Amino acid sequence: MSTFRSGFACFVGRPNAGKSTLTNALVGGKIAITSSKPQTTRHAIRGLVHREDGQLVLIDTPGLHKPHTLLGQRLNALVRTTWSEVDTIGMCLPANESVGEGDKFLIRELAQISRKPVFAIATKTDLVKGDKLRDHLLSIQRAGADAGLQWKEIIPVSAVSGEQVELLAELLVATLPEGPALYPEGQLTDEPEETLIAEIIREAALEGVRDELPHSIAVVVDEMVPRADRPKDKPMIDVRVNVYVERDSQKGIIIGKQGARLKEIGSNSRAQIEAILGTPVYLDLHVKVAKEWQRDPKQLRKLGF
Ligand SMILES: Nc1nc2c(ncn2[C@@H]2O[C@H](COP(=O)(O)OP(=O)(O)OP(=O)(O)O)[C@@H](O)[C@H]2O)c(=O)[nH]1
């Protein structure tokens, strides 16, 4: 029997490097969700990659979402801890952008970790042509050498076209220690659909305003009902959702000018929700103020905490 491997990996890279999209592509779609409860680690699990040869647990790297406070300063301790705890690291460097100072800073930091495989992942290769990709791969190699980092591999991928995603999964799994699966297959997908849907909407609501609404937002799926008057071959589900914030000002942020942001939240999350439910949905989003909900046990229970 062939060896089964299991372990943890994280992706690092500047904002927009393609980490989330790659995570989704590796996981196979819908379950790359930041808030899934940490199980054996303190870190949030972003997704599970189940394969015949192993199981890869992709974890979130806190702090790297705020590179402006991070780059140019020392990396915070939590990020270092994450790096020291995972089995393998993938640094994402988008092929349509040159290797910049921010990237080099990260590469130097990664070079400090000894005896851990660090992959350079040239993301978004569908956006560039041959010569440009070759130059990009060369500058990644050079940046590694300059920092004293020996890349485990430099691998070009496109999460959008799917090119080399399978190969990347194989290479990452090959670096994991031998061991049984850490999570039952499909564990994260066993979360109730409502939880996944609420989480997708919460992510969409936080998009671009994360700093303004850090923890003050909770999303609850109120009901999901099949629309009665639809033909059998064209079903539709009405999904009624409440988005709770703590203050009126936050309500304004979520709703946006003439409802523009709320509309955007709906359209950004609908496709993913439709993928989960397997039917078109009508999303009915309501924003409500639940004052100080984080401090009110009764409200917390209502919001599912
Ligand atoms: N064409 C193309 N676009 C991609 C690919 N991967 C990601 N993108 C796009 O690049 C943008 C950023 O991708 P994300 O996956 O959100 O990047 P990220 O590194 O997770 O970003 P942060 O959450 O800001 O750290 C999005 O608009 C993606 O659609 C790819 O393989 N090809």
UniProtKB/TrEMBL annotation:
Listed A to Z, the keywords are:
Cell membrane, Cytoplasm, GTP-binding, Membrane, Nucleotide-binding, Ribosome biogenesis, RNA-binding, rRNA-binding
Keyword Cell membrane attached:
yes
How the protein sits in the membrane? Peripheral membrane protein
Q: Where is this region: G1?
A: 13-20
Where does the UniProt annotation locate this protein? Cytoplasm; Cell membrane
Q: Which CDD domains match?
A: Era (cd04163), KH-II_Era (cd22534)
Q: Name the residues that span the membrane.
A: none
Q: Where is this region: G4?
A: 123-126
Ligand binding (GTP): 13-20, 60-64, 123-126
InterPro entries xref list? G_ERA_dom, GTP-bd, GTPase_Era-like, KH_dom-like_a/b, KH_dom_type_2, KH_sf_prok-type, P-loop_NTPase, Small_GTP-bd
Segments forming domain KH type-2: 209-291
Question: Which ranges carry the Era-type G domain?
Answer: 5-178
What job does this protein perform? An essential GTPase that binds both GDP and GTP, with rapid nucleotide exchange. Plays a role in 16S rRNA processing and 30S ribosomal subunit biogenesis and possibly also in cell cycle regulation and energy metabolism.
Known HAMAP family for this protein?
GTPase_Era
Listed under subunit, the entry gives: Monomer.
Instruction: Please report the name of this protein according to its UniProt entry.
Output: GTPase Era
Q: Which gene encodes it?
A: era
